[in-house]
Amino acid sequence: MQTLRITLCAAAMTVAFAANAAEVEVLHWWTSGGEAKAAGELKKMLEAKGDKWKDFAVAGGAGENAMTALKTRVVSGNPPAAAQIKGPAIQEWGDEGVLASLDDVAKADGWDKVLPKVVIDTMKYKGHYVAAPVNVHRVNWLWVNPELLKKVNAKAPTTWDEFFKTAEALQKAGIQPVAYGGQPWQDSTVFETVALGVGGVDFYKKAFINLDQGTLKSATMVKVLETYKKIKPYTDKNAAGREWNLATSMVINGKAAMQFMGDWAKGEFLAAGKVPGKDFLCVAAPGTANAYTFNIDSFAMFKLANKDAVKGQNDLASTLVSPQFQEIFNLNKGSIPVRLGADMSKFDDCGKQSAKDFAADNKSGSLVPSFAHGMAMHSATQGAIYDVVSQYWNDDNMTAKAAADKLATAAKTK
Ligand code: GAL
């Protein structure tokens, strides 16, 4: 009798569990080595809550392809449960009336107390949480292969003069100076880093947050564009169209000395078993040691009718912001936790430096949103600016002055 009761009880539990095992379809673009490892941690933690992860991965750095796929699904009335949506785009999706409220989870888990104000504001639509943040990526990094720099007796450059001298010396020694991926989002990633380094924080803010016409057409912008284009002779002939992680592999494998990229690149070095400070160096890009371009990944949830699916969404949201997930995920992803006062003891020096600089730059006002990663402006404006930057990079006949004028026109796109 006793045994039967236990068996029946267990059977009932299995049925209850099966009914609640929500399938959570998650759209993301984390398909490179380091990214996939980090995403794998999310899947594991969600499944530990009894939910089922349905992978909707769309390859392509910075998520341009993923966003196109998302639009198609939403327009056809069949949105995924969750999608990687960031920055001002959260408001754009909010305007469409398709996002679900995460207020209950946020209240239960105390998000208002554990997240920085700037992050809370981005995650809310009309006062309600509709997205959950996972990390802070720093974009203005230079990744360096120290072995190759040693061959020309150079240290990691901290100014643009040093950078170009080192690049020249490497080239003369037959070493590929820069690993570059010629894709619009990567062009703009490097361009915004040069803009911060050459123009400074106020210039960056006026140009890419205020979209100030005078600044976009200014002599400083011309100088920024000239400096950006000066990098091109130090890239290789096969750069066009190259994925960012393949460019990172060139630095990892000693095929190129340096790469400008956000710290998702660190995820690639780590996944390849490389040690920071020894096998590779992370340094703030020239002229940007006292500034920080931030890029925050987050997931928004879509309104769904199915109750089990809603449970799955809430489990996902709660997992994303939990301290356990933020630690394990960011150790793999190259970013740092977005939670205030997160324990950084397990992080390497690049992570610790990022956390320290984030806090310092937040205080001094030199924390700026990355426009190349959807943090600063409407997506249509960003697309128009991407186009000009890439046209200028690819067209050797376009002058910096002409490109600056085109940037100013592009900034009017809404
Ligand atoms: C960024 C994203 C990062 C990283 C990178 C390359 O926009 O925030 O998480 O994945 O693209 O795909």
Automatic annotation (TrEMBL):
Coiled coil: none annotated. Keywords: Signal, Transport. Residues 1-21 form the signal peptide. It comes from the Bacteria. GO terms for cellular component: periplasmic space. InterPro entries: Bact_solute-bd_prot1, SBP. It is found in: Periplasm. Belongs to the bacterial solute-binding protein 1 family. Part of a binding-protein-dependent transport system for a sugar. PANTHER family: ARABINOSE-BINDING PROTEIN-RELATED, BINDING PROTEIN COMPONENT OF ABC SUGAR TRANSPORTER-RELATED. This is Probable sugar-binding periplasmic protein. It comes from Andreprevotia lacus DSM 23236.
